[in-house]
Amino acid sequence: MFLGSLIVPKGHGTYKIRLAKNIIELIVRLAEDLDSILDQDAPILTRLFPTAYADNPEMDAGYQILARDQLVDQRREAIDIVRSTAENSILNEEELAAWMRVVNDLRLVIGTRLDVSEDDHELDENDPDAELMQVYHLLGVVLSDIVEAMTSNLPLNLEDGA
Amino acid sequence: MSGPAPTPMEVQLPESDVLVEEDRPWAVIVWNDPINLMSYVSFVFRKLFGYGQAKADRLMRDVHEKGRANVVSGTRSECERHVHRLHGHGLWATLEHDD
Hints:
The complex is a heterodimer. By secondary structure, chain A is mainly alpha-helical. Chain A contains four helices and three strands.
């Protein structure tokens, strides 16, 4: 069990990272695996590069020509930040944002691989994908704590027209 | 886009329904998916569009419960830029005419 949040805001846009070393190593390793397939046309990457024009293939092709390469580059930049800050116990806003995006990308890829649905909450030890499902859930815990920490540092919007 | 961490940006929503013929408004739609965390989706709406927590949560719940939500409107190029940033954050976003 984890005691308290894994990511603790320390003020001045910095965050204390309380992730165990083996979890950080797992995230870095998965991120490097993702990096190595990012420019492939693999079905497992579908969620990272969605269509922009659902009912107009021609317009979508135009979008993809420009967007795809930029999205790959942004993801590589975020993975580079994760790799280079993996041993830091304090991260700044930009660095933690990169961790957030990488962890979310990993969840999207693993979730696609596992074909998860809204109802998949049970862990079945006999499932051949049980280990991957555990990784998926672990990444969810990490992401949730990153989001909670970063949300606490967002500027207040007093004119919220909800 | 230059870096992995875009700064929060205020988006001016159209105040009225006045349509300019040559540039009918477009809408950015975010679709429900079983993977993204609800708190993450709200966070991305706040960060990218400068929305408050209540508005971001309302849009997130629409995505989750109704299957889709119109999160922002504008010209085609504005909406394409928003969609691109949402794709960078792993959200399933499309743009369409705001009819």
